[in-house]
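Q: My labmate handed me this sequence with no annotations at all. I'd like to see what the chain might look like in three dimensions before we decide whether it's worth expressing. Could you predict it?
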Amino acid sequence: MIEQYNNQITNHTPVNIIRSETIRGGVNIALIASFREYIKVNGYPEPRRYTEQKRKIKLHSTYPCMELHTTDHDEDGTPHDVWIYVYEEKEDYKVTDLIITKIVRGRTRFNDLESLEQKHGEDIVTEIKNLIETRIEEINNGLWEEDK
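A: Here is what I predict for the chain of 148 residues:
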């Protein structure tokens, strides 16, 4: 289907936008025109360019996403719930790592452990790392099932 659209665009034939299964919604006609101009000047991309481009793309799946929970305390003893959202990275049906997608401490959101450590110290980061290691072992040993 995609090859058909590529051929239509490069051959300057009309692209049926309304019944398209691949291209949905409003297609930017100026973008198609600029793509045609690019192909006139540079030619059609070689197959190796596609494989090179695919290597550069990194997808981060948030499904299925697990939630890990712990509690952090301020210097004055005020507790804050910390939710860690992770997804599994597997190899040969074993979980090798849990990749963090986001961390929510109270009402503040963090994207990685480094930014959390800068703001709230290394104690919570150490606790999260231990929690992740424990959870990996539990998953691989079949001792833990995600809450449904």
